[in-house]
Amino acid sequence: MIQLNNINEKLKKFILDLKMDQIHNERLKIFDKIIKSINQNTMNNSYPNILFVCTHNSRRSQFAEIWANTINCILKQKIKIFSAGIFKTAVHYQVINAIRDAGFNIRKKGNNYYLKYSNNYKEIKIYSKKIDDINTNSFLIVINTCSDADINCPSLPNTLERFLLSYEDPKISDNTKFEKKIYQETCKKIASEIFYLFSNLKK
Fold this sequence. Notes:
- Helix content is about 40%, strand content about 15%.
- It contains 6 helices and 7 strands; from the N terminus they run H-H-E-H-E-H-E-E-E-E-H-E-H.
- The model has no long low-confidence stretch (mean pLDDT about 90).
């Protein structure tokens, strides 16, 4: 049972409303492979680092990094989590709106956003970055959140395994009346699946 003490009330409700039991079986098969790989490569309570990659590091990989860092802190698993892209752009404003709606407090400084969900945990810093900006000296599990990145992502040193965990790009809704709704739905789907992943890692 995930302990949600000290979490902002709005975010706590968002998490408790997630439907992890509604993840499709085909998706569960992918997650179970990722979970198995992370567990097999965990030694002396030291987890491999996790890198989420999509083409522009502006939407899907940012959602994944945010939720992975959040549940990582809640479960006190001490996993280093990053996201990056083939290209460096910016965190899309609707990603920020969706996570604010989920319950995060957000402040911006320059091109960086700082997310806070509890007075008991440090802020999460998010910004768009390229793979070259990531420290790959430690062992990595690479999770590609789009098929384009899966094809074009270069081989990274110290990669133990890489997986394709593709999400439909919410960019398809940009500048339409459905934009906010689609980003919120993408946020909730990624949150549900990332919570499933992290809550099933061995302690």
